[in-house]
Design brief:
four-stranded mixed sheet
């Protein structure tokens, strides 16, 4: 991989550009595109854990079919150069943690909102016909606790109104909560508006919990992988709140299929906003996830509890009827199968020290 040194240099024509392409979803997207014979340019700031490992994995599998470049989406010159001859832009680069946004709101805004606007302007000026698919978040809907619509029952939070029986729909009003929610929400609306006002061919995907191989989960992002890493390492898991929070979870292979379908069907879905998640049939609470880990490992992880964090949603499940109809898509990997695959991938990265018998992650 290398940095972009000369803004006059252009990538080879008609390759798919993936920003944040060395991240969890980005690397899986790059792999899927290469597998179907497409040329890919992956650009990443390489600041997150696992980025270099994912880059090496992609290059080892696809050699010259995937080019990996180091750049920041806030670099307008680099973005203009990169989008000039691409066939599509899959935009996943971003600051991904609510906690980080609370510590440094200005940096959070500059990466998520300004970085996305840089990319949109680059497309508008250099390559307005190229489709752009954007990774938004369910956090744009806020806490979703107003009006007593969500309550606790049977050891998990659940909706108590018929309106939410299929999950949260795209018609739900935005309620941007936390700097992260604000920055992603601003980017979300810019991407949508550039389709309306400037005619760019954009799609917004408001993603819920995506999980699967190549996910280096942390306490701030990728909670299912984080729980499994902690459980396998014999370290305590901290639950913020009571642990009865519910999320719908979508296996990364299914998420990739939706992304590629949105790109392939851009003529019919341009300007649309979709929720992308596992839907009600793939919903799980934090405590239920920990029970799965205990079952896989044979030992229950140690639990610790802390206060709720700003913007935490007691319940969020995506209504995926709109994206299913528009893209002829639905989740194909069950929660049972997907979680087992994630656990096996994380287990494969864990080795037992010869001395001391402690488990540790393989060095990245």
């Amino acid at each position: 991989m290398r940095a972009i040194g000369n803004p006059a240099r252009q990538p080879a024509a008609r390759r798919v550009l993936i920003t944040g392409g060395c991240g969890f979803i980005g690397s899986n997207l790059a792999d899927a595109l290469a597998a179907r014979g497409e040329e890919v340019v992956v650009v990443d700031a390489m600041t997150r854990e696992g980025s270099h490992e994912n880059a090496s994995w992609l290059k080892s599998r696809w050699q010259e079919r995937i080019e990996v470049l180091t750049a920041d989406v806030r670099d307008g010159d680099a973005m203009r150069m990169l989008v000039r001859d691409c066939s599509a832009v899959l935009h996943l680069a971003g600051q991904v943690a609510v906690t980080t946004s609370l510590e440094d709101p200005l940096s959070d805004f500059s990466v998520n909102a300004l970085g996305t606007l840089n990319l949109l302007e680059s497309l508008r000026q250099e390559n307005p016909l190229a489709p752009m698919i954007f990774a938004s978040t369910n956090k744009v809907y806020g806490e979703l606790t107003c009006g007593g619509e969500v309550g606790g029952s049977s050891g998990r939070y659940s909706p108590v109104v018929e309106r939410l029986s299929h999950g949260v729909s795209e018609a739900t009003p935005l309620d941007l909560y936390s700097p992260y929610g604000c920055s992603k929400g601003a980017a979300d609306q810019y991407v949508h508006d550039y389709a309306r006002v400037f005619g760019l061919r954009t799609v917004v995907l408001r993603m819920s919990c995506i999980y699967g191989p190549r996910q280096f989960g942390t306490e701030d992002q990728g909670w299912l992988a984080h729980f499994m890493i902690k459980g396998l390492s014999g370290e305590p898991i901290t639950l913020y709140g009571d642990g009865y929070q519910v999320r719908d979870a979508l296996y990364v292979g299914d998420a990739v299929a939706a992304w590629l379908a949105a790109r392939d069907r851009i003529d019919s879905v341009s300007g649309r906003i979709f929720n992308l998640g596992g839907g009600p049939q793939n919903a799980i609470s934090l405590r239920e996830a920990i029970d799965r880990i205990a079952m896989y490992r044979g030992v229950a992880p140690e639990l610790r509890f802390a206060d709720w964090r700003p913007g935490d949603q007691p319940w969020y499940v995506s209504d995926i009827r709109a994206i299913s109809a528009a893209l002829d898509w639905s989740p194909g990997v069950s929660l049972n199968s997907g979680l087992k695959q994630l656990y096996e991938w994380i287990s494969s990265r864990v080795t037992r020290r010869a001395v001391g018998g402690a488990l540790q992650k393989v060095a990245v």
